[in-house]
Every structure is written in C-alpha cells, then in structure tokens.
C-alpha cells in the first residue's frame, strides 16, 4: 500500500548516495557518531570525572583516530542500538553488540573483535548453576540483549524481568528482584569482581558468540573500511593492549585474554 | 515478514500488556481517589497535624516526576531493606502521584462552591458538618468532576512510565519487542492503537458524564 | 415596654486595616421594622452580617433578647436559627428541590419532624403563591420566584428577627414588586422584627417604623420612618434621598 | 553506612555532572516551552475561529497529543520520523521538538478556554467600536485571556519540566541518565549511593517545580477571592 | 423633512427555532430620541443588537442613511463606526487605561492621529467630569464612572446613531443619576439620534420623543413620548407602566 511504498523508497534512498554515514561523508563532516553504552563498566561507562571510558570506548577513539575525524558519542541502551543506526542517529555502534542472525537481517556487522557467551550470575548464598534451576523463577535481563533473546526463544518457562538499562538490571539483582541475572558473561565477570556476594554460577550457555561493530544495512563504504581497520588493529596488538588497560583490572583470575580477545 | 504478520504475531503479548495496563490503572485510580479524598477532607475539616502532613505530601508528590518516584521506590528503598515487587511499586507510585492530583481536584471543587452558598447555609443555622454534608460536598463534587476526569486520563497515561521498573505493560511490551525484533514502526503503531482503545472511549464517556453532572446540578 | 430583641453597643469592624464600622449603637424592639439606608459602600451589608455572626467584629457587643452574645462560631450557629437572613443574590441551594431547600433548616438544624415541617412549609409556600413549585429545582424558577422561596426558607425556621439585604437588587424590575409585597405584608400583618436594607425608597417609606441612616460606617441619624422621608435631620440624608429619585 | 553513602555525590566531578545533566534538562524544557507556548497561543486563537475544518484539524492535533503518552511520543519521533519522513535530528532536538509540540497542544486548549471565557460583552464592545477581528484579538481578547490563563500555564510548565524525566529513555544525557552513570560507576564503593543519587534528583525536580506551583496556586487563590468578593 | 437615519422593515429574528422578533417595522429621523420599552425578555436588547449587526437576523432589512445594509461582517464592521453602542455591563477593557479605551476606536479603526483623537477625547472627558482619570485603569473607577467612560468611548467615534441598552441597570442607585444626566444632556443639547432601552420611567419620559413598546418580540405601540406615559394606547402598556413604580 501507499505506506509501504513510501518506506521502501526512503530506504532505497538512504542506502544510495545520500547515505550520511559513508566514509566520505564522515570525513567531510569531521566527526563520526558512535553509539556506546554509558553504564556498563568496563566496556562503556562514565567514570567519576565524567569521562567516557572502557574497552569499547578505547576502540571507538582509535577508529576515529584512524579515520582522522573526531568521535562524537551517543549513549544508547541495548534495545535502541538498531534503531539508532536505522534512524541515522549514529554512524557506527560500538556497544557490545553481539552478532545474531536476526540482527544481521536489519543491520550489517563488521569483523568481530570480542568473544562472549551468555552467562548467569546469582547470589553466592543461593547459587544458580544449572538452567533447570530457573524454571518458573524470575530471571533479570536487559531488553534487547542476546541473553533476553536466548531465554525468550529457547527457555520459555523462565519468567523474565526486562529492564531498560544495565544500571537498572544490576540494581534489581542486588535487590533480589529475581533469582539470577543473565547477560554476556564478560560483563558478569567484571561485575562479580566488585560484588563478592555474587557468583557467575553458569559461565556459558547457548552458542559462543561474537561482538562486532555495526553499521547501517547497506553502508558498504563504512563497513569495508571498518573491517580493514579491525584487521590492522588486530595485527598490531591493539586489542590486547586495550584488554590489559581497560578490562584486566576488572576481571578475576578466572578470565584470560584469550577468552575475550579474538586472535 | 510483512508488517501485518509482525503485528499479528505480537498481538498476544500486547494483549497481556493491555490487560495489565488496564488493571494497574484501575487500581491506581481507585487508590488515588481514596487518598485524594482523604487528604481533601483532612484539609476541609482542618484536622490538626494530619492536614499539615497531607499538605506536605501533596506538594512533594505534585512537584516531582513519577519516574523519579518510581526509581526511588524500586531501586533506592530496597537499599534500606524496604522492598516491594514491581507491580506493587508501580501501584504505590501511581497512587502516591495520583493522590495529590485527586486531592487538588477535590479541593478545587470544594473551594469553588460560592461564598454566598456557604453563608446562606450558615445563616439557616447549619453546623460545619451539616454545611459540608448538604451544601459544600454535593456542589463541590459536581464542580470537581472535570478535574477528576482529566486526572483519570492523566494517570492512565502515566502507567507508560512503569516500563522503567520492568512491568510488562503496554509500553514495556512494545519497547521489548523493538529491542528483540527491530520492527519499531509496527510495534509503536500497535502501542498507539492500544492507548487509543483505552483512552478515546474513556474520554468520551467522561465528557458525557461531565455534561450530565453539570446539567444535573447547575442548570441555572 | 416592648421586649428588646437586639441591641448593639460600640460595635467596631475592621477589614485588615480598613475601619469599616465606627462605634455603632442601636437597639430594636420586638415587632419593630427598621430600614437601614445609606449610600453604596457605607457598610449596611457589613453591619447586618455582623448581627448574625457572618462577619466577626473587633470590638463592642451584640445582645440578643437581653443576653450578650459570646462571639464563638458555636454560639452564633445556635443563634442563627432565631435570626433569618435573605441575601441579594438568589441563594437557593441548586442541588436541592424547593421543598428540600426550605426543610433543611427545620429538619436538620431544629430537628423538627419532616411532616410537621413540611406542613408549615406548604403553608408558607401558599402565602407566596408558589405551592405548586415545591418539587422543582431552583434552576426552573425565575429570579423573583427564587427570591420568594429564599424568604420562605428563612421564615421556615420561625425566626425572631429577619434580616433582608437588598433582596430585590438583582431582580428584573417587573419582578421586584411581588417580592416587596411579600415583605410588606409580613411587616404589617405579623409581629416580625425586621431589619431591611433596600434602595427602594417608596418601599422603605411604606414599611419602616424607623430608619437608620448609615454613611462611611457611622450611623448619621436614627429617625422615625415618616419623619426621615419628609424631613431628614442631616443634609447628607437629604442629598441621598434626592439622588434616589430621578 | 547509609550516612556515608551521601559522599557518592562528592566523589570526583559527580555533583557537577549531575548539575550539568540538570542543565540539559532545563535547557530542553526552556526552549520547548518558549516555542510551545508561542505556537500554543497561535493555535488557541485559531481554535476560536468559526472555520469548522480548521477547528477539527486542530482538535485532532490536540487529541493526538493528549492520548499518546509522552514516552511513546518520544519514541515515535525519535525512531519513526527519520525512517518514514527522512528528517533526522539529534536526540536533544527531537526531545525539544516533542515537548514543544506537546506543550503547544496543551497550551492551545488553555488559550482557547481563556479566550472563550473572556466575557461575551467584552468581545461585543470591541466589535461595537468597529474593531476588526485581528484588532479584537490583539487589543481586547488576548491581553485579557493571558491573565485568565496564567495559573494554568504555569501548571503546564511544571508538568513539562517533570516530564523531562523521560528524556533518559531516548539517549539524552539528562540528569537521570547522568545519575545512572554515577550509580554504576560508584557502585562498589557506595552500595547505598543509589539512594543518594536518586535522592538529589528528587530534590532538584522539587526545587524547580515547587516555587512555580506555589506561584500558580497563589494567583488562583487571588482570582477566586476576587470572583467571590 | 428630516433625514431618516435608520429604517427597519419586516425584521424577523430567530434563535434556532425560537421566534424572537416578529415583523419589526420602524424608522428614526435624525436627531430623534426613541425610548425602547417593554418587559424583560420582550426582545429589546435583541432588537438593538440587530441594528449594529451584533446579532444576525433571518429576514427583513435594515437601512442606514437610506442605504440598505448588505449584512456581511465586513459591512457591519464599517458601519459600527457610525453607530455607537453602550451596554448594560460596564464593558471597558480592563487591560487598557481609560484614555486607551477611548482612543482604541478613533486611532486603530478610524486611523485618526493620536494627538487629534486625544484632544477630542479629553474634551469629552471634561464634559462628563472625568478628565483627571484618563490614565487610570477601569478597575479603579466606580460603576457610574465606568459607565460614563463607556459612553465617552462610544461618542469618541463621532457616531450618527447611539444605542443605549439599559446602561444604568447594574449601577448602584446613587450612581444612576449622573449617567442618566449625561444622556439627557446629550439628547437635549446635541442633535444626536438615539435609541434608549431603559427601565427608568422618569428618565424615559424626560428624554423620549417617541416610545416603541415591545412585547413578546412584537411592537405593540409606537407613541409620542408624552402621550405614552400619560395615555398609553394598549392595556398591556398601561399595566407595564403601573408595575414599574411601586
Ligand atoms: N471582604 C472585604 N474586604 C475588605 N473590604 C471590604 C470587604 N467587604 C466590604 N468591604 C468594604 O467595606 C465597606 C462597606 O461595604 P458594604 O458591603 O457593607 O457596603 P454596603 O453599604 O452594603 O454597600 P452596597 O449598598 O453597595 O451593598 C466598603 O467600603 C467595602 O469596600
Ligand atoms: N443567545 C440566546 N439564545 C436563545 N435565546 C435568547 C438568547 N438571547 C436572548 N434570548 C431570548 O430572546 C428573548 C429576548 O431577549 P432580550 O434579551 O432581547 O430581552 P430584553 O427585552 O432585552 O430583556 P431584559 O429587559 O431582561 O434585558 C428572550 O426570550 C430570551 O430568552
Ligand atoms: Mg450591600
Ligand atoms: Mg436586555
């Protein structure tokens, strides 16, 4: 109908020449707009000096530097990462974005730079070590995460409590609003290090997954550029350095760089 | 998948959210009316201490956002061991907010009763209680109906903020689906329709009620 | 000697800093009809509102049937059953029928049985020619009819003193007459003690045993009715009377 | 332990950042209010014109903004506008636009209400001395409506300010979003920090809105006294 | 023969289904003063509001200075500069000073220079004895003063016809006289054509060259002033005159 055709035409228009997020456009503009998290230490967060820091942020700055433009950060929550790209709010997402088949249909992922899988954290006093323990219990997740997706599609008899932000979900867990919390295991490792009363009882469920930068569907120009840049950074050991400076201090002994960084 | 299929698949979830929104609004509104009426009566009868407490409550509640009130109830209070489940938080929050709005509505009605009516009542020897019972309340309730109606609509819309404390009402459902399946246009459309289904008929009913009540009591 | 119904001594009234009534002194005997005249803003309304406690006063005393009123809200509330008052605006309760308007005082305040009160009310309604309207709501009445009902409502309490404050001021000119007629009849036929504030000089002349002439919150003269209209004692009153008819 | 939690506010630049967030909030509210109030007055005037079609369109505009919760409006404008219409604005501007349009809708109703409650004889006196419609509004109706509507307008202003709390949902770095960052970054050292951070946000909103409500209430009271006295 | 200022033929007016004015016919010559009398609700206000287009009428014609008015809003708006009207309620604009109230018409509508208009306005203010109030706001005036200013405001446009609708009805009795005096003077000293609706019979008698007596939207009689008050032609008018004085 009329509505559908108009959206189609605008879509085709945005993927062609007047896409505002091509490398050329970005260079012309002098800034690259990057979606990041603001409340997820140690990946993307704001320290008490008000600076945006973290593993993703270091990468983001490096990418901007390689592009010879200034970075401009747009803070997002997990459930608006896709729309931030599609509505041209940002050029690139570097917000711990896990590659999934559904997401691939609506946006384009560049080469991955991190490995993760879903983990489950719970209080040490009542640890959850098997998924079966979650049957008909409340499990805390953040909207739009792979954890939510996994439990919604694969474990339908778990009650999910869905939050908008990481702050909210971790607070909810501390207040015992659910028996456990599911999210990417890499955050959970970092979080439990500071929360001695909690443990990552299930270290990994579901398939091993990858974190990658994302661009708007059809933005070949930026996608290709990013792939090249990631390859270059991989070769010169950037990710290990990034790991050592941003992540290592937050992780316990149970995590090794090779669990996270892709070699 | 076509838009229509997307929408169809989501309908069961939206239906759950819809019912929850209705249910929470209903409890919240009833609670708000009760709290509001109590505050208003405390003020009208100038009950010492309690009327002052009510006044302070009204000001705090009216001048802070529901979202912050909910954050407080949901995230901050448990730090000190006071924990309510999400739905209860939502309802308590909504009543906390709505109580003051309703109180103001009733106050407006009672204050709106004309001074000559009150004096006439006094002149025939009515006591304060009798004055309230036969003159101020019957006329004041009628006068407050428009404000109460506006508050009811307002409170229903405020339930959309419950999304921040993970209550799967309408808005939360839509945002969640968007986060998983990325079809924001379709889901937001369903969401808007969901609110319209509740609010359009309700606002028509309330307008009719207003007209009727006004005519019933003040046709002069 | 006739019984003194009301006596006012050294009454002073302020609104915040404004001195509205200055050293008011007068008394009224049973059955006497007093017209309270004076230019707009002179304090007539304020004075009669002080007489049934609707306005607090800051100094002086009001005595009713020889007993000085201790001016608490409770005392006034009791006294108001004995003091009927009718205001300028038709002040019926819009949420009650005519009959319920009238019965509210007798039944709820004086605790008469509804039957007795109703019988009395219907007699009064007959007198003002509005018996058939007893079950309608005030909005269905004309201004003049409303005002007659308001008078009935005050009379239904069987008051010892009636206060009328410009009861015809907001009526259409053609309606005025009916209402004034009722008050005249009341003044002449019954033994009711009354204070009447009015701007209708012919009417005042017809009913008043005595005139209190007020200006700027002071009683300028207290004169017998006939005499006031023929030969006012003060120049101000003379001037006032002249201005009142074109 | 609880009492020491308050120190979370004084760590690093936390407090300054919270005030910075508040500034963003206030800025968006202020710009939206200025635009919205002006547009609202214009629409309110138009709604008193006899043209039925115009009135219907404006009424639908009002009802749309009345029925759709503000949260939903924000998402609609943030995500749908760019996709369907190709208009792309940063979050702060989207927020400003949404709030301005919403304010205009509500304001148009307030203005309309005030205009039609200017006594009829005022309108007629204006006509009787030969004023045309524009002059009638300019010299007679609008100046009088303004004083009638002022309390309601102030109440609308407080509502808009309160509702800016929803900005956190669309990536605006408002005071609540900053608050969440602070809570997360200081979680370990100050487990009760969440109470103090949300506490100060609560106080901030109250400090802005309360004086405004108080003012509106006082004016309403005065008007009531005038009407009764 | 004097010039005919206004002529009304077969005027019919409905409010929805209510037939308010029935076949109204009359004309008024320059300089004539016509009193429009009749009971409340008879249609007096409605009639004079039709004469300057504030009310639309459904049938019949109004002619002004011999030209039939084509009743569009634009035409009326132009005509209203030549037809002054003063209403019952003090209808000054509360947001403007006295002077600005008066100058609004001359300056904004007639595009006179402010200086000329101001000089004329001050002369008029002198005539009503209110020159010193030119810079105050209406709320600081008494009712009688406000109404005098309203008359000045209408006169400032130099109208050929003045319409007065019960201009003293909401005034305090003592204020009435001053306002009526000004209208009398205007009627007698100037050559102004006027239609005056009033309930003050003495006043009407004094100024009216002719009386139109209206009842139920029909003109029951048109009689010379003196004659109407001494010997009305219809019983209804006689009855009306009797009811008007107590
Ligand atoms: N609530 C009030 N606050 C302050 N001043 C008041 C108040 N009510 C009345 N006044 C002042 O008190 C004076 C007397 O007023 P009052 O109404 O008693 O006069 P009145 O003689 O009844 O006049 P009228 O004939 O117009 O009814 C006036 O100057 C008036 O302005
Ligand atoms: N806006 C209106 N809608 C319907 N009917 C109206 C309206 N205005 C007036 N009427 C009716 O028209 C009739 C004439 O009213 P109008 O005001 O002209 O009478 P009037 O002679 O001026 O009375 P008064 O002496 O009380 O001013 C009345 O029956 C009135 O009810
Ligand atoms: Mg008075
Ligand atoms: Mg009239």
From TrEMBL, chain B:
Q: Which Gene3D superfamilies match?
A: MetI-like (1.10.3720.10)
Its GO CC terms are: ATP-binding cassette (ABC) transporter complex
Residue ranges annotated for the ABC transmembrane type-1 domain, each copy included:
18-210
Kindly report the protein's main subcellular placement as a broad class: membrane
Membrane topology type, per the record? Multi-pass membrane protein
| Segments traversing the membrane | 20-45, 66-84, 90-110, 131-156, 187-209
Q: What protein family is recorded?
A: Belongs to the binding-protein-dependent transport system permease family. HisMQ subfamily.
Would you tell me the protein name for this molecule? Answer: Polar amino acid ABC transporter permease protein
From TrEMBL, chains C, E:
The GO terms this record gives for MF are:
ABC-type amino acid transporter activity; ATP binding; ATP hydrolysis activity
Where do the TM regions start and end?
Answer: none
Q: Which family does it belong to?
A: Belongs to the ABC transporter superfamily.
Annotated protein name in UniProt = Glutamine ABC transporter ATP-binding protein
Give residue ranges for domain ABC transporter: 6-241
Which SMART domains does the entry mention? AAA
By its UniProt entry, which Pfam families does this protein fall under?
ABC_tran
Per UniProt, the keywords (alphabetical) are: ATP-binding, Nucleotide-binding, Transport
UniProt key word Cytoplasm: no
Automatic annotation (TrEMBL), chain D:
Look up and give the membrane topology term: Multi-pass membrane protein
What are the record's GO terms for cellular component? ATP-binding cassette (ABC) transporter complex
MF GO annotations: transmembrane transporter activity
Q: Domain of life, per the record?
A: Bacteria
Write down the InterPro entries for this protein, in alphabetical order.
AA_ABC_transptr_permease_3TM, ArtM/GltK/GlnP/TcyL/YhdX-like, MetI-like, MetI-like_sf
Q: List all membrane-crossing ranges.
A: 20-46, 58-81, 93-115, 136-158, 195-216
Q: Where is the ABC transmembrane type-1 domain?
A: 22-213
Q: Which family does it belong to?
A: Belongs to the binding-protein-dependent transport system permease family.
What is the protein name for this chain?
Answer: Amino acid ABC transporter permease protein
The organism named in the record is Secundilactobacillus silagei JCM 19001
**Mind giving the lineage of the organism this protein is from?**
Bacteria, Bacillati, Bacillota, Bacilli, Lactobacillales
